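Morning!

As promised:
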Amino acid sequence: MSSFPRLATLPPKACKAAAVGLLAFALLASAPSSAEETGSSERADRFSGYITQATNLCFALPAMRCVEHGFAFADRNADQGLSADELTEVDRDMRAWWEKSRERLPTQANLAIGLGLLTTQYAGHAYFVRAWDEDGDGLVSIDELIADLSLDERPLPILLSDKNAVDWESLRGRLGQYGALLDRLRGGS
Ligand SMILES: [Ca+2]
Ligand SMILES: [Ca+2]
């Protein structure tokens, strides 16, 4: 079963936007994996459950619902802030899922996830937490996470394809030396 049942039916621009969204998520979820206390299969199943729900939800409901769903998945202690440790957990779940799923995924999604995971190996998760943590409390709140987005009733993938709904300059600034990845994925748009 494809984990992206609707991706293939979208216009190319929306696919690219979805890939950029995946990359942003991958960039937030960082850190190379180390000793695994949770089984790889369990992690893959957990992320698979998340991505299946997210795919259905994010293409149908207003963008904020998609953001809240992803945030809740990552906020393991439900304190309304994403810590570096929590992002590491999400990273490990995603890596385990990707190992099992990548042969079935669209090329653009594989490109986004692969580039994101590769980048976070070099940058480390603390880099990306600091990039979004405006108040310096060491956590990324949901408001901090969406600071560069102008959310409305449109689903997130559609919204991301509207250049007026995303402050790409600000996003690029946050990502610093890794901002070029955004341009690479948005190339031609
Ligand atoms: Ca938390
Ligand atoms: Ca914060």
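The chain has one domain: 10-186.

Hope this helps with the figure draft.
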